[in-house]
Amino acid sequence: MVKVNLGGCISFVKDADYKANVEKALAALEVLENETGKGNDFLGWKHLPSQTLASGLVAECEAVRDAWKSKNIDLVVVIGIGGSYLGAKCALEALSHQFAKQLKNKGEAPEIVFAGQNLSEEYMCELMDLVQERNAACVVISKSGTTTEPAVAFRLIKKYLEDTYGKAEAAERIVAVTDKARGALKGLATQEGYKTFVIEDNVGGRFSVLTPVGILPIVLAGFDMNAMLKGALEMEELCAKPCGECNPAIQYAAMRNALYAQGKKIEILVAYNPKLTFLGEWWKQLYGESEGKDGLGIFPASVNFTTDLHSMGQYIQDGERTLMETVVSVQKSNRSMLIENDPQNLDGLNFLSGKHVEECNAMAELGTKLAHIDGGVPQISLSIECINEYNLGALFYFFEKACGISGYMLGVNPFDQPGVEAYKKNMFALLGKPGYEAQAEALRARL
Ligand code: PA5
Questions:
Q1: Which among 31, 15, 10 has a CA at the least distance from the CA of 407?
Q2: Cα gap 286→306, rounded to integer Å
Q3: Residue whose CA lies nearest to ligand 1 atom number 9
């Protein structure tokens, strides 16, 4: 369950302005529900929680997990970029033990590592150093099946697996997640006989965490995907309600747009737990790619406190006053550690004796909220009870729904990403891809 608290905005936004934005958000919700807006052929994500819970998809992913377990696979390379990477990465970072790699007892699940999310040669070489030491398998994810970064990584991993295990065994260690018919990856997967999961046409990359794109890596890592879908389902139901008082997606979308209209052009997603760092990365893609177009859109940034209070804190407190904060507030720690009394008190910390570490974190959060509001930074608070599969699923769905509503309030198509093509065309031209000769010549003339 995600609860929205707008108390940190009341000194910044007049009640009438907020209410006017709630009306706009409700109108946007109606467009989204009736599927009459821009990009309405990309709304397949809206009912993914209910549809997926009723399907056999999680069980199908569990079958892959069990088959690989019977081969003692201890490393899975998940290849993908953008929406084909960030959701799974976010979930795994949030749910995994932060020192899993260093622990002696590593548990039963294979280690998941990611590739194809950059074009660094050093990254690939170092990844291969690891793969060579381990019993490896690979999940390659690309909706279009033509994205360069994952395609390059997959070519290298595929060759390694085939050279090491033979072609037939390699084919059992590779699963593809891609379009049902189009793209080079689909053709390759069919030709090589890979197990394949489909990303439906009507779900865009950044809205795909609750498709096999996110589900397969999360299941392989040993987490409870059904619980995540149930959390998302609670939000699917709540965030469909045409209700300004009870629909959290309406409240969040309305307030961030009210603040944007007042010049708060940068929204910083704040977490007070390092496990949520990649929630910020996933959220930045979702909102940046959905809203940043036609010369419009709130710029999404993210920080992790208290860590970044010692780096970005100064700017947020005193820099240009174009910022708003959205804090993902976790009510309860999953683990417990008390700060004990020290009779010598050489560090002067006995005022904390008997308190939990998380109480210090909570007071840092409260103190920062008050300081930032005093400094002119409004704060939207989104709270979840604790970090687990259920609440993560709720957050994923909540942010997706609020993003669709916000994009329509802004007047853009939240479901396309025309701007992403510009760098690709230049890169292809500079790399000599056939068909880009004229563009290559024009670019070289500029260098
Ligand atoms: O949200 C999006 O559509 C993009 O970020 C894509 O997910 C990303 O570019 C990867 O695309 P693909 O899955 O086609 O390789």
A1: 31
A2: 24
A3: 82
Looking from the CA of residue 147, the nearest atom of ligand 1 is 15
Distance of alpha carbon 181 from alpha carbon 313, whole angstroms = 49
Task: Identify residue 227 by its one-letter amino acid code.
Answer: A
420 CA to middle of ligand 1, Å? 9
Tens digits of residue pLDDT in 266-298: 999 999 999 999 999 999 999 999 999 999 999
* 79 Cβ neighbours under 8 A, 6+ residues apart: 114, 115, 116, 138, 139, 140, 141, 142, 150, 153, 154, 157
- Which is the catalytic residue, given 289, 291, 325, 389? 289
> Among residues 159, 424, 425, 441, which one is catalytic?
424
Catalytic residue check, 424: yes
Which ligand 1 atom minimizes the distance to the CA of 207? 1
- Pick the closest to residue 358 from 380, 331, 379, 377 (CA basis): 331
- The residues pairing with 338 across neighbouring beta strands, listed in sequence order, are 356
Determine the Cα–Cα distance for residues 155 and 117; give it in Å rounded to an integer.
Answer: 14
User: Which helix or strand (DSSP H or E) is residue 131 part of?
Assistant: helix 121-133
The reported pTM is 0.96
Query: 138-194 pLDDT, tens per residue?
Result: 999 999 888 999 999 999 999 999 999 999 999 999 999 999 999 899 999 999 999
